[in-house]
Specification:
mainly alpha; 10 helices; globular; G3P_acylTferase_PlsY; Glycerol-3-phosphate acyltransferase; phospholipid metabolism; lipid biosynthesis; lipid metabolism
């Protein structure tokens, strides 16, 4: 059962939401357009606001549902975390798109809302505050990722817990996936949310 749920979590995470919206609505391959990501930000810039909104909601749902399925069948924190990791892995490295997917932000948010809604919404709050000030999605995502392990530690009071471990892993993973964005930020070349193309 555990292996089955982990597999389901991966395939759930690997649903290429942004790619499908790009293909069906604009006949474009997001992997070859803009930032090359299939996430909501690239959808926003190249497909439209409403498609981006739906992609974001669905991608959040992928992480949330994967963890909720695990929670339904077990009360083991480690197993919940493994299901979340599987969903995030599917989102970043989807088998359908030869391993080229999104950057784990929305799916990771869904996972943390399921694991600890306080941490999930606190991270979302940090993201929205930075976004309101900077208008730069990548900076907002990176900022939320940096704060994530600290928020989790404050919530559970321990570094020896699967939730803290996954918060640290996801933080590092999100920052790593934004490494090209970081280079542009340092050069002052990163575009803002209302810019059309990267």
């Amino acid at each position: 059962m555990h292996i089955l749920i982990i597999s389901i979590s991966y395939f759930l995470g690997s649903l290429p939401t942004g790619f499908l919206f790009g293909k069906f609505l604009k006949n474009i391959d997001l992997r070859l357009t803009g930032s090359g990501s299939t996430g909501a930000t690239n959808v926003l810039r190249n497909v439209g606001k409403w498609p981006a909104f739906f992609v974001f909601i669905i991608d959040v749902g992928k992480g949330l549902i994967a963890v909720k399925i695990a929670q339904h069948y077990t009360n083991q924190n480690l197993f919940e975390v493994l299901a979340g990791i599987a969903a995030i892995s599917g989102h970043i490295w989807p088998i359908w798109l030869k391993g080229k997917g999104g950057k784990a932000v929305a799916t990771g948010l869904g996972m943390f809302i399921a694991l600890s809604w306080k941490i999930g919404f606190a991270s979302l709050g940090i993201f929205l505050i930075i976004l309101a000030k900077s208008k730069i999605v990548s900076l907002s995502s990176i900022s939320a990722a940096i704060f994530l392990p600290f928020l989790m530690f404050l919530d559970i009071g321990s570094t020896n817990h699967p939730y803290f471990f996954i918060s640290l892993v996801v933080s590092i993973l999100v920052i790593w996936k934004h490494r090209t964005n970081i280079r542009r930020l340092l050069k002052g070349e990163e575009l803002k949310i209302n810019d059309i193309n990267k």
